[in-house]
Amino acid sequence: MRTTLTTVISRSCAALLAVVLLAACGGKKEPKAPGIAKIACDESFEYIMEQEVNVYEYIYPKEDVIAIYMPENDAVDSIMAMGSVKGAVITRPLTDQEVNYLRSNKKVVHQQKIAVDALALIVNPANPVEILSRKDIAEILSGEVTRWDQVEPCKLGDIDVIFDHSGSSTVKYMRDSIMNGKPFGPNVSAVKSNPEVFKAVAANKNAVGVIGVSWVASDLSGRQKSVEELAGAVEKSDTTSMDFNSDVKVLKIRGNNEVTAYKPYQAYIFDGSYPLYRSVYMVSTAPGGTVTHRFYSFVTGFQGQKLIQMTGILPATVRPRMVEVQ
What we know:
Layout: E1 3-4, H1 15-22, E2 37-42, H2 46-59, E3 65-70, H3 72-80, E4 87-90, H4 96-104, E5 110-123, E6 131-133, H5 134-142, E7 160-163, H6 169-178, E8 188-190, H7 194-203, E9 207-212, H8 227-233, E10 249-250, E11 252-254, H9 266-270, E12 277-284, H10 291-300, H11 302-310, E13 314-315
Parallel strand pairs: 2-3, 2-4, 6-11, 7-8, 7-9
Antiparallel strand pairs: 1-8, 4-12, 5-9, 5-10, 5-12, 5-13
């Protein structure tokens, strides 16, 4: 059942509770040996981080990385608790206060931007709407605009906005950057995961979903690349063109006072033409020589950045290029 988002969403768990839950839920697998890396990851980036973990463990079969997916606030709390979690993937760097606290407790702090993520707005292929402006999005999220025929002439009914999770960074971004902190309207709700957003939109002509672009830059219902293929691909310096899953339609978005609308392709994220984007950071408090630090170096290095590029979002250190396929 969805949860209606009508008020500003508070932090969902305290640091202690987050740490207690780490061993009980969300892990990719049970620890096999000492020296395992545990990474708390904003659940919006689950698809991306699974690729990173799988390829890393394929290349380094004696090392084990457990990615634990949770709301962003819980991921920050987990690393600040200074327990077994010594890595995090979040949409902001740690604050000076957080860094100073960790260092005062003799923790090494490394953090680096690893990607620029775009948020895609997806609708059912039967929806005739092709473009939304930032103003349109704000009015839909606030409940000022409640029907599709208020956006453009069509036979569709009430707009049903679907987020991935009430405590996700996607919700936070849209509330803070598009709504300027105002509450969502009663037409906004959340499911439990990004794949559920995808499924809900594919099944509902009136729905519009807000989802990380990596989730629609691949065919979730079709064949995925094997780990062996991914590991081979990250050794190459070429880039490939990406397209979006045909089970949903990705809308073009137009910035305020802009004439042209854009889809969230990497080149348009890179030059700022696509207006719904945010940075992604990786944080490590592990010393050198540990599995966590080696995994941090992998993700921030060439191979990890190439994997990010292959998921459809913009890596921090690999410049995109346009590829025309004849």
